[in-house]
Design a protein that fits this description.
59% helix, two-component regulatory system, three-stranded antiparallel sheet, membrane, 246 residues, KdpD_sf, nucleotide-binding, elongated, phosphoprotein, Beta-Lactamase, alpha+beta
Protein backbone atom coordinates (compact mmCIF):
# COMPACT_ATOMS: atom_id res chain seq x y z
CA UNK A 1 0.00 0.00 0.00
CA UNK A 2 1.43 3.44 -0.93
CA UNK A 3 2.85 5.30 2.05
CA UNK A 4 0.96 8.39 0.88
CA UNK A 5 -2.37 6.61 1.38
CA UNK A 6 -1.32 5.31 4.81
CA UNK A 7 -0.44 8.84 5.89
CA UNK A 8 -3.78 10.19 4.68
CA UNK A 9 -5.72 7.49 6.54
CA UNK A 10 -3.83 8.28 9.73
CA UNK A 11 -4.69 11.96 9.17
CA UNK A 12 -8.40 11.10 8.90
CA UNK A 13 -8.29 9.18 12.20
CA UNK A 14 -6.35 12.02 13.85
CA UNK A 15 -8.89 14.53 12.54
CA UNK A 16 -11.70 12.77 14.38
CA UNK A 17 -9.83 11.69 17.52
CA UNK A 18 -7.34 14.50 18.26
CA UNK A 19 -9.91 17.25 19.04
CA UNK A 20 -11.79 14.81 21.31
CA UNK A 21 -8.64 13.82 23.21
CA UNK A 22 -7.46 17.42 23.66
CA UNK A 23 -10.94 18.52 24.75
CA UNK A 24 -11.10 15.71 27.32
CA UNK A 25 -7.69 16.75 28.67
CA UNK A 26 -8.87 20.36 29.06
CA UNK A 27 -12.17 19.49 30.78
CA UNK A 28 -10.76 19.57 34.36
CA UNK A 29 -9.52 23.11 33.71
CA UNK A 30 -12.59 24.54 32.01
CA UNK A 31 -13.63 26.67 34.98
CA UNK A 32 -10.30 28.50 34.89
CA UNK A 33 -9.95 28.53 31.10
CA UNK A 34 -12.01 30.91 28.99
CA UNK A 35 -13.86 29.34 26.08
CA UNK A 36 -11.97 31.65 23.74
CA UNK A 37 -8.68 30.11 24.87
CA UNK A 38 -10.11 26.63 24.48
CA UNK A 39 -11.17 27.49 20.93
CA UNK A 40 -7.67 28.75 20.13
CA UNK A 41 -6.13 25.50 21.37
CA UNK A 42 -8.52 23.51 19.19
CA UNK A 43 -7.67 25.67 16.16
CA UNK A 44 -4.00 24.77 16.70
CA UNK A 45 -4.99 21.07 16.62
CA UNK A 46 -6.91 21.61 13.37
CA UNK A 47 -3.90 23.30 11.78
CA UNK A 48 -1.60 20.48 12.90
CA UNK A 49 -3.88 17.85 11.37
CA UNK A 50 -4.31 19.76 8.11
CA UNK A 51 -0.60 20.49 7.75
CA UNK A 52 0.22 16.79 8.04
CA UNK A 53 -2.79 15.45 6.18
CA UNK A 54 -4.96 16.96 3.47
CA UNK A 55 -8.02 19.18 3.02
CA UNK A 56 -10.55 16.50 3.98
CA UNK A 57 -8.65 15.75 7.18
CA UNK A 58 -8.48 19.45 8.01
CA UNK A 59 -12.20 19.90 7.41
CA UNK A 60 -13.07 16.87 9.55
CA UNK A 61 -10.82 18.18 12.31
CA UNK A 62 -12.60 21.55 12.20
CA UNK A 63 -16.02 19.88 12.48
CA UNK A 64 -14.81 17.57 15.25
CA UNK A 65 -13.34 20.53 17.17
CA UNK A 66 -16.61 22.45 16.96
CA UNK A 67 -18.67 19.43 18.05
CA UNK A 68 -16.52 18.65 21.08
CA UNK A 69 -16.28 22.32 22.05
CA UNK A 70 -20.08 22.32 22.18
CA UNK A 71 -20.21 19.06 24.14
CA UNK A 72 -17.54 19.80 26.76
CA UNK A 73 -17.32 23.58 27.11
CA UNK A 74 -20.72 25.10 26.29
CA UNK A 75 -23.26 24.84 29.14
CA UNK A 76 -25.13 22.61 29.75
CA UNK A 77 -22.02 20.40 29.77
CA UNK A 78 -21.91 16.93 28.23
CA UNK A 79 -24.91 17.70 26.05
CA UNK A 80 -25.09 18.73 22.41
CA UNK A 81 -27.03 21.83 23.36
CA UNK A 82 -25.84 25.44 23.44
CA UNK A 83 -27.89 28.02 25.30
CA UNK A 84 -25.64 31.08 25.53
CA UNK A 85 -25.38 33.25 22.39
CA UNK A 86 -21.68 33.84 23.14
CA UNK A 87 -21.00 30.09 23.12
CA UNK A 88 -22.95 29.65 19.90
CA UNK A 89 -20.87 32.41 18.31
CA UNK A 90 -17.62 30.86 19.57
CA UNK A 91 -18.56 27.40 18.23
CA UNK A 92 -19.50 28.81 14.82
CA UNK A 93 -16.32 30.90 14.65
CA UNK A 94 -14.27 27.86 15.67
CA UNK A 95 -15.79 25.88 12.82
CA UNK A 96 -15.34 28.64 10.24
CA UNK A 97 -11.80 29.58 11.30
CA UNK A 98 -10.85 25.92 11.52
CA UNK A 99 -12.11 25.25 8.00
CA UNK A 100 -10.34 28.28 6.53
CA UNK A 101 -7.06 27.67 8.32
CA UNK A 102 -7.11 23.97 7.45
CA UNK A 103 -7.41 24.83 3.75
CA UNK A 104 -4.47 27.21 4.00
CA UNK A 105 -2.40 24.66 5.90
CA UNK A 106 -3.16 21.98 3.32
CA UNK A 107 -2.13 24.35 0.52
CA UNK A 108 1.15 25.08 2.30
CA UNK A 109 1.75 21.36 2.49
CA UNK A 110 1.02 21.02 -1.22
CA UNK A 111 3.65 23.62 -2.04
CA UNK A 112 6.09 21.75 0.22
CA UNK A 113 6.73 24.93 2.24
CA UNK A 114 9.27 25.99 -0.37
CA UNK A 115 8.73 29.19 -2.33
CA UNK A 116 8.98 28.42 -6.01
CA UNK A 117 10.18 31.74 -7.39
CA UNK A 118 11.93 30.66 -10.59
CA UNK A 119 9.93 32.04 -13.51
CA UNK A 120 10.45 28.86 -15.54
CA UNK A 121 9.07 26.66 -12.78
CA UNK A 122 6.07 28.94 -12.28
CA UNK A 123 5.38 28.94 -16.01
CA UNK A 124 5.33 25.14 -16.09
CA UNK A 125 2.86 24.98 -13.20
CA UNK A 126 0.67 27.68 -14.72
CA UNK A 127 0.62 26.10 -18.18
CA UNK A 128 -0.24 22.68 -16.79
CA UNK A 129 -2.99 24.04 -14.55
CA UNK A 130 -4.45 25.95 -17.48
CA UNK A 131 -4.37 22.87 -19.71
CA UNK A 132 -5.98 20.76 -16.98
CA UNK A 133 -8.91 23.20 -16.94
CA UNK A 134 -9.39 23.27 -20.71
CA UNK A 135 -8.36 19.82 -21.97
CA UNK A 136 -11.20 17.58 -23.08
CA UNK A 137 -9.19 14.45 -22.34
CA UNK A 138 -6.89 13.75 -19.36
CA UNK A 139 -4.54 12.02 -21.82
CA UNK A 140 -3.54 15.45 -23.13
CA UNK A 141 -2.53 16.51 -19.63
CA UNK A 142 -0.59 13.27 -19.16
CA UNK A 143 1.27 13.83 -22.45
CA UNK A 144 1.97 17.45 -21.57
CA UNK A 145 3.37 16.60 -18.13
CA UNK A 146 5.44 13.76 -19.61
CA UNK A 147 7.17 16.28 -21.88
CA UNK A 148 7.55 18.74 -19.00
CA UNK A 149 9.19 16.12 -16.78
CA UNK A 150 11.74 15.16 -19.45
CA UNK A 151 12.87 18.76 -19.75
CA UNK A 152 12.52 19.65 -16.07
CA UNK A 153 14.56 16.70 -14.74
CA UNK A 154 16.90 16.34 -17.76
CA UNK A 155 15.61 12.82 -18.47
CA UNK A 156 16.42 10.53 -21.38
CA UNK A 157 12.77 9.57 -21.48
CA UNK A 158 9.53 9.27 -19.52
CA UNK A 159 6.37 7.20 -19.82
CA UNK A 160 3.12 6.95 -17.89
CA UNK A 161 1.61 3.73 -16.56
CA UNK A 162 -2.06 3.71 -15.62
CA UNK A 163 -3.02 2.03 -12.36
CA UNK A 164 -0.14 -0.39 -11.89
CA UNK A 165 2.47 -0.90 -9.20
CA UNK A 166 4.84 -3.56 -10.49
CA UNK A 167 8.22 -4.13 -8.91
CA UNK A 168 10.05 -1.92 -6.44
CA UNK A 169 11.83 0.79 -8.42
CA UNK A 170 13.35 3.88 -6.81
CA UNK A 171 10.58 6.38 -5.99
CA UNK A 172 10.48 10.16 -6.10
CA UNK A 173 8.63 11.10 -2.93
CA UNK A 174 6.29 14.01 -2.16
CA UNK A 175 9.06 15.97 -0.43
CA UNK A 176 11.42 15.71 -3.41
CA UNK A 177 13.60 12.97 -1.95
CA UNK A 178 14.23 9.64 -3.65
CA UNK A 179 13.77 6.36 -1.77
CA UNK A 180 15.35 3.19 -3.10
CA UNK A 181 15.12 -0.12 -1.28
CA UNK A 182 13.73 1.72 1.78
CA UNK A 183 16.77 4.00 1.95
CA UNK A 184 17.14 7.65 1.00
CA UNK A 185 19.18 8.17 -2.16
CA UNK A 186 21.47 11.22 -2.14
CA UNK A 187 20.23 12.89 -5.32
CA UNK A 188 22.15 16.11 -4.71
CA UNK A 189 25.44 14.22 -4.65
CA UNK A 190 24.79 11.22 -6.90
CA UNK A 191 22.02 12.42 -9.20
CA UNK A 192 19.03 10.18 -9.88
CA UNK A 193 19.63 6.39 -9.79
CA UNK A 194 20.79 4.74 -13.03
CA UNK A 195 17.44 3.04 -13.57
CA UNK A 196 13.81 4.02 -13.95
CA UNK A 197 12.40 6.06 -11.06
CA UNK A 198 8.68 6.10 -10.37
CA UNK A 199 6.69 9.24 -9.63
CA UNK A 200 3.20 8.33 -8.46
CA UNK A 201 0.03 10.25 -9.31
CA UNK A 202 -2.51 10.60 -6.50
CA UNK A 203 -5.88 12.31 -6.87
CA UNK A 204 -8.14 12.83 -3.84
CA UNK A 205 -6.44 9.97 -2.02
CA UNK A 206 -6.70 7.54 -4.96
CA UNK A 207 -3.75 6.08 -6.87
CA UNK A 208 -4.18 6.51 -10.63
CA UNK A 209 -0.81 5.57 -12.06
CA UNK A 210 2.81 6.60 -12.17
CA UNK A 211 5.35 8.31 -14.35
CA UNK A 212 8.41 6.15 -15.01
CA UNK A 213 11.39 8.49 -15.23
CA UNK A 214 14.46 7.42 -17.24
CA UNK A 215 17.33 9.52 -15.82
CA UNK A 216 20.25 10.82 -17.84
CA UNK A 217 23.55 9.62 -16.31
CA UNK A 218 25.30 12.43 -14.49
CA UNK A 219 22.27 14.76 -14.42
CA UNK A 220 21.54 16.23 -10.98
CA UNK A 221 18.06 17.84 -10.92
CA UNK A 222 17.85 20.36 -8.04
CA UNK A 223 15.37 19.98 -5.20
CA UNK A 224 13.08 22.72 -6.53
CA UNK A 225 12.86 20.97 -9.89
CA UNK A 226 11.97 17.71 -8.15
CA UNK A 227 9.29 19.45 -6.08
CA UNK A 228 7.81 21.00 -9.21
CA UNK A 229 7.80 17.53 -10.79
CA UNK A 230 5.80 16.21 -7.81
CA UNK A 231 3.27 19.04 -8.12
CA UNK A 232 2.90 18.38 -11.86
CA UNK A 233 2.22 14.71 -11.10
CA UNK A 234 -0.35 15.78 -8.50
CA UNK A 235 -2.07 17.91 -11.13
CA UNK A 236 -2.32 14.84 -13.35
CA UNK A 237 -3.79 12.90 -10.44
CA UNK A 238 -6.37 15.64 -9.83
CA UNK A 239 -7.25 15.70 -13.54
CA UNK A 240 -7.71 11.91 -13.67
CA UNK A 241 -9.81 12.03 -10.49
CA UNK A 242 -12.04 14.74 -11.94
CA UNK A 243 -12.42 12.82 -15.20
CA UNK A 244 -13.26 9.63 -13.30
CA UNK A 245 -15.93 11.40 -11.22
CA UNK A 246 -17.26 13.55 -14.01
Amino acid sequence: MPRHLDRDRVAIVAAVVAPLVVSAILVPFRTGFSNTNVALVLVVIVVAVAANGHRLAGALAAVSAAVWFDFFFAPPYERFTVTKPADIETAVLLLVVGLVVSQLAARVRRLRVIAITDAGYLARLHDTAELAQSAKSPDRVVEHVTTQLIDLLSLRGCRFEYGSLIGHPPRLEQDGTVVWDRKNWDVDRLGLPDREVELRTIGNGHFYGRFMLDPTPGAVPPLQARLVAVILADQVGATLDTAGNG
